[in-house]
Amino acid sequence: MSKDYKEYDDLGVRFIYPSNWFVQTETWDKGTYGITVDSPEGSFWSLAIYPKGVDLDAAAKQILGTLDAEYEEMDQAEVKRYVADRVLTGYEVNFFYLDLTSTALVLKFEDENRGYVVYWQTCDRLALTGENLSRSDVFDAMTHTLVSNLTGQEVEYRGDGGDEFDFGAPVDEKERRVAENREFYRKKYERQRWEEE
Q1: 92 lies in which domain range?
Q2: Domain containing 41 — which CATH number?
Q3: How buried is residue 183: exposed, middle or buried, by Cβ count under 10 Å (0-12/13-18/19+)?
Q4: Element (H, E) at 56
Q5: What SS3 class is residue 65?
């Protein structure tokens, strides 16, 4: 495993995250868990795990309600993401915080046993990091490895040794096909989003 990232493997989920980020796990109720991964500069990615049958849309809307109460001007749009043969639905939110624009994404999906809500938030200033991956790219890679591992389509990423890790470096032919498939669905999603607007 590259020194640029670590792997979280607990509570029946597995995903990668940058090695200099911090993980906190909480148990809210029996069968309901929260995992938060914080970056040093304040961006975060979180995963809520619920028992099967919980209303995930209500959980996602609760996050939106919290954001709406905290930030005065907020734009939101429904989104769909295609990850490892699954469709994740949710909301993209843009708002101002300390005179900076920020973005949050809330995605929900289920497998055979449980429901999941992924929620990440970053300042757009941090999302534009020049040659390095943006925070949203990092969060997308974390989400991709989470969903891929839940669906049995395990994908191993390895870093290139730079300041940021390179989630796009394929380690074998299967991973290359998975990366191409992910890029195809990302472009398809973007086309659908522009057509809907």
Answers
A1: 5-196
A2: 3.40.1000.10
A3: exposed
A4: helix 56-70
A5: helix
